[in-house]
Amino acid sequence: MLVDFELIRRAQKGDGSAFNEIVLAYRKRILGTITRLIARPEDVEDVAQEVFLRLYFSLDQLRKEEVFEPWLYRLTVNAAYDYLRKQRRRQEFRMSDLSEQQVMLADAAAGGRVDHDEQYNKKIRESVDALLGAVSEADRILLMLKEVEGLSLKDLEKVYKVNENALKVRLFRARQRVLKAFGEAEKREGAGVKPA
Amino acid sequence: MYPMRGSDDEKLDALFRAFQSACANPDPGVNFMPGLWQRIEARQNFAFSLRRLSSAFVTAALALSIALGAYMSIPRSIPSAYYSQTYIEALADASSLDTPQNVSPVRLDLTDPRR
């Protein structure tokens, strides 16, 4: 735990500076998790603010110290899930929007020269984002938490409040779907077809 | 770089690892905290106005109920005798069986009109 439970108690009583300290302690971790969950750097701060906003208004419901972090994770997962659902609804609009933004960002970076590492990272992010399009938003988040964030099944059990076996089955199915999409993408690349 | 050899499972694991390094924890912008507090205050203001609106609505509903109750409890000016009569009594008052047209004998005119 990055903060003292006493600090949480103070924040629960309406102490704004205590809440500020909690946000300062967790914001980098939450921003990182959201970056990996939604793969859209331009919206990460917005989703992270939503997480802390939900935390502020539901902090008084917290009773036990040990559930704070899984609970914060759950708020993060829910905010990311809501964002991804909205995103899917306006996907076509956003796609054209994004490509324009990316061009602008690329142009702005070092006077039009795009750093090689950044381009590689961007390619990786786009590949994973495209692969995860093969599963639902909920499965995408579950898979990310397990495979990328490195949460154990025990941790996931606490976050989702679902038993381990159900999580295992869900993870297995989601991974199989992503693997299938991965195989197809490999075949397309092998045949020289540009992925959609 | 993630390896391009091995089974799909291995390649996918490597891709996830590469993705993790490609998405390092970003530094929050300078507007993160002010923006957060702005959103908190906006939500609080909205909740406060909603609470005020609902309490005004409750007060108005309560006042209306009291006014309606008071109105219903005021005795009406219609005579009470009108309501105390039964239907039969009212009918008997309106057309009594003792009136001459009901009790006088029937008269028949037996003369032939052709004569």
Q: Could you describe the 3D structure shown?
A:
The complex is a heterodimer of chains A (196) and B (115). Chain A is mainly α and 196 residues long. Chain A folds into two domains: 89 residues, RNA polymerase sigma factor, region 2, helix turn helix motif (Rna Polymerase Sigma Factor, Chain: A), CATH 1.10.1740.10; 81 residues, Winged helix-like DNA-binding domain superfamily/Winged helix DNA-binding domain (Arc Repressor Mutant, subunit A, Orthogonal Bundle). Chain A is globular. Chain B has 115 residues and is an all-alpha fold. Chain B has a domain of 51 residues. Chain B is 64% helix and 0% strand. Chain B contains five helices and no strands. The model of chain B has no long low-confidence stretch (mean pLDDT 81). Classes of the chains: A mainly alpha (196), B mainly alpha (115).
